Amino acid sequence: MTKINVGILFGGKSAEHEVSLQSAKNVYDAIDREKYNPVLIGIDKTGKWLLNEGSRFLLHADDPKQIALNKAGDPVALVSGSGGVLSNLKTFGDSGRIDVVFPILHGPFGEDGTVQGLLKLADIPFVGAGVLGSAVGMDKDVMKRLLRDAGVPIGKFLVLRSHETALPFAGAAAALGRPFFLKPANMGSSVGVCKIHNEAEYHAGLTEAFQYDTKIVLEEFIRGRELECSVLGNENPRASGVGEIISSHEFYSYDAKYLDEKGAVLDIPAKIPDAVKVRIQALAVQTFQTLCAEGLSRVDFFLRDDGEVIVNEINTLPGFTKISMYPKLWEAAGVSYTELIDKLIELAIQRFEKERNLKTSFT
Fold first, then answer.
1. What average pLDDT does the chain have?
2. What kind of fold does domain 156-220 have according to CATH?
3. What are the pLDDT digits (tens) for 138-170?
4. Count of alpha carbons within 13 Å of 360, Cβ hemisphere only?
5. How far apart are CA 298 and CA 266, in angstroms?
6. Rounded CA gap, 350 and 1, in Å?
7. Is 3.40.50.20 the CATH classification of the domain at 4-126?
8. Where are the alpha helices (DSSP H) in the chain?
9. pLDDT tens digits for 324-333?
């Protein structure tokens, strides 16, 4: 059997670069070698693509605080219409061909539709949402407006832009209550997120968040349990069971997720009534479809004490380490990490073949 060349695209020009490295290591270790030939393409923080060997593609691979991309690989590029041929920018030849791409990229320049557009122009299948689904899933402002208009329950929110006069703290507190959250509109992994209790924290939070984006979102603090549900599929997506995040920090911060081994506990399955589980699963699929997601997504929820379920956000390329919620939920449903990778690649190829049959000219 001819193996499928899978380009594992990781790293990226994003504050979530290191999270991506951890996800890529886990995918590379678990992918079925009988069926696939993994091709490692690391993107450094300047945006350069580097073809790497499996034995040396990461530095400090087992230390989340020091993990880094090995920049010794050859610089490569995908050319529009190449069908997956990697052009070597050092030798000016080619460095082989990839049949499908698994973009293990989180945050801007990876999860926001930019890489997805490049892969479509290169005429190659890829795992995850397309350009539109990736873009609206990344932008928390647009995401929330679409969910609100579709009747999906969300919390109160406000949007501020860097060129506008900042909303006074009193105005934000009056609209959202105290405390409230402040975060970059286009970022994940809790990067740049601040919990605001007073005016001093508000101004410090604005300075922090505007370092990562030109648009920030202010969200009401919703007191309740943090629950998550994984979604898998294209036209007919299905939801996993529900898991709960129990954080030992004030909120589920970057440190709690990736650096502090005791920062949080994942309770799978979450101890919730069956009716709440069914409600969350239905809302997860509705959110997935409303935002034009494909392949995979993790949808995050709050469960209030009175039983009300609120959608927080979607992640179209969620954390994908072996201990991340997305694969752990599917593992609990009987789908192993390796099987999940296989299914996602199959979904990518199926979508590509379907789109390939569409007309591109009018006669």
1. 92
2. Dna Ligase; domain 1 (3.30.1490)
3. 999 999 999 999 999 999 999 999 998 889 999
4. 3
5. 14
6. 19
7. yes
8. 17-30, 114-121, 131-138, 140-149, 169-176, 199-209, 254, 274-290, 325-332, 337-356
9. 999 999 999 9
